[in-house]
Amino acid sequence: MSEKKDKAKKKDKEVKDQVEEVLDNAIDEVDENGENKEEQPEGKENELTQEERLKEDLQKEKDKFLRLFAEFENYKRRTSKERLELFKTANQEVMTAMLPILDDFDRALNELKKSGDENLLKGIELIHNKLKETLKAKGLERMNVEQGEDFDSEIHEAITQVPAPSDDLKGKIVDVVEPGYKLGERIIRFPKVVTGK
Question: How many CB atoms lie within 10 A of CB 92?
């Protein structure tokens, strides 16, 4: 991460140096042209032409400077946007890696409820809730998908179709095999469902 910061600082410095160099060249050129004008006595027409030429040169240098400055501003905006995207992506990878652990916790809780050991169940529930709340604080949100909802291919992943147990479940979700999760507004894992046909 620090290497990227160093590279970004280096690029910023290079662009700043280019801007300063263009300005210095423009100032030097104006100074040289001004000295030449004093050294060479010319007629009024030549002085006006010389003055107009200097104004044109100065205008060209101003344009170069403004373009370079605008390019630098765009560069700053682009790098800050890329940096934010990098943070989001890094967070997404960690969250995606944690999802199977959450699934394992859910399975373990279901099995412990069947065993009837209340103390063990309570301890595992505390750890499970702490993990869920920590991930929720970082932006992870479980998608609520229930039996009987309409199947939407944009937000659900159908793993199989089974004959609908009743007519009202045709084309709808019959069972949720694996829950889906969102990170902010983005779905990082689609819920895996069984649909009725």
Answer: 16
